[in-house]
Amino acid sequence: MALDLDTDRIHQLLHDGVRDKVYPGAVWAVGDSQKTLAVGTVGVLDPARPEEPMRRDTVFDVASLTKILAVWSTIGTLTEEGKLQIDARLGDFWPATVGHPLADVTARDLLTHTAGLPLRANLRNLYGTDPQDIRDGVLHEALHRPPGEAVEYTDRAALILGYLAEHLSGQSLDALATSRVWRPLGMTRTCYGPLPAEAAIRCAPTELDDDTGSHLKGTAHDFSARLLDGICGIAGVFSVLDDLAAFCRYLLAPTRSIDRPGFGVNWIKESLQVRTGELLPARGLFWHPAPGTDAAKDDVWVHYGFTGTGMWVSPGQGRWAVLLTNKLFCTRDREPLTGIRNRFRSLVFPGASNS
Predict the structure, then answer these.
(1) SS3 97
(2) How confident is the model at residue 181 (pLDDT cuts 50, 70, 90)?
(3) Distance of alpha carbon 303 from alpha carbon 341, whole angstroms
(4) φ and ψ of 287, to 5 deg
(5) Rounded CA gap, 32 and 2, in Å?
(6) What's the pLDDT at 354?
(7) By three-state DSSP, how is residue 214 classified?
(8) Residues whose CB is less than 8 angstroms from the CB of residue 125 and which lie 6 or more positions away in sequence, other chains included
(9) If you count Cβ atoms within 10 Å of the first and of the last residue's Cβ in the chain, which end, N or C, has fewer?
(10) DSSP 60
(11) Model pLDDT, residue 3
């Protein structure tokens, strides 16, 4: 299986990203259900400190990969335990939504980004800084459009699902994800921030913080996560390459794991299929087909993080890939990294279409 993996071209691609100042550095790996087939690092944590290279154990602010690692996984756990029916109206079982527009939305609508939610989080401007006021405001807000009408990615979907997971489990989202997903999979270095000083030292810095005059390091870049004390469904999780590899291996072989998380075969299969019908862009449950691939033929699914992270998985091809960068250190411009991600995917899954 590893014979079709051109690691030299992958390394050159990612090295060129450092040269072109798309990101200071990157860490990547490709594997199957049993092991990591190839792994590499390029660049440095911080251009101002060239003596500190990117390492396999560098800690990254994974940003929206939180939606997969903490929300998708725990919602899957609650679904498989029978505590959640994802096609039931939220208003039928969640008192906080009764009498509000969100009552007519389902968890499936949220997972496919078809709920018609407002497109921007904009939490502080709308609801202030008190976490309870923010929660009430988000759960009581008017919809942007009727559910099921369009696919529109919004952070609010994960925020609401995080609140829902807490409501159904009686646990905070970080405790739930730790106990039901991360700990069973041996993901010992995955956690919500802010990170303690000894862990933050090993963290890849992200964007320059105007308030402190230094790059964020060990504190979530996402403003909504910081507003909510670091813990929410949108972002806030920090992780390392080997933990994400363990997560991806489980997705490819969920019955092989001895210490299984709360979600399994049924949830994975349900999620990694197009669930938006004829609506575009096509989406599964939080995951979406990798750009340039055919969902039915290629079966390559991806989720990205705004800080410069990405995670691909293909049950059909029996392969996963992780690419972690701190591109926000350099720029918010999406295009340079988008090109690198797409070329990385084509090298990792060479049999996939590139239409």
Answers:
(1) helix
(2) very high
(3) 11
(4) -70, 160
(5) 9
(6) 61
(7) strand
(8) none
(9) C
(10) E
(11) 54
Q: What global pTM score does this model have? A: 0.96
Total residue length of the chain: 355
Contacts of residue 161, defined as CB under 8 A and 6 or more positions apart, other chains included, come to: 71, 75, 107, 110, 111, 233
Structure tokens at 15: 């090295």
Residues 6+ apart with CB under 8 A from 273: 284, 295
State how far the Cα of 343 lies from the Cα of 315, in Å rounded to an integer: 20
Residue reference for tokens 């995080």: 162
Q: Who's near 187: CB < 8 A, 6+ residues apart?
A: 181, 239, 243, 246, 247
Instruction: Please state, as a whole number, how many other Cβ atoms lie within 10 Å of the Cβ of residue 20.
Output: 11
Name beta bridge partners: 89.
Answer: 106
pLDDT(1) > 90: no
Could you read off the pLDDT of 287-335 as tens digits, one per residue?
Answer: 999 999 999 999 999 999 999 999 999 999 999 999 999 999 999 999 9
Q: Give the residue among 304, 347, 351 at the shortest CA–CA distance from 323.
A: 304
Nearest partner of 180 among 302, 305, 59, 75, judged by Cα = 75
- Enumerate the β-bridge partners of residue 202: none
Residue with tokens 């303690």: 196
| Out of 27-41, 47-61, 134-148, 257-271, least confident range | 257-271
C-beta atoms surrounding 109 within 10 Å: 21
pLDDT above 80 for 345: yes
Residue 121 has pLDDT above 90, yes or no: no
Residues 144 and 157 sit within 8 Å (Cβ to Cβ): no
Average pLDDT over residues 164-184: 98
Q: What is the DSSP letter of 287?
A: -
Q: 36-63 burial, b if ≥16 CB within 10 A, otherwise e?
A: bbbbbbbbbbbeeeeebebeeebbbbbb
Please give the Cα distance from 185 to 289 (Å, whole number). Answer: 25
CB count, 10 Å around CB of 282? Answer: 18
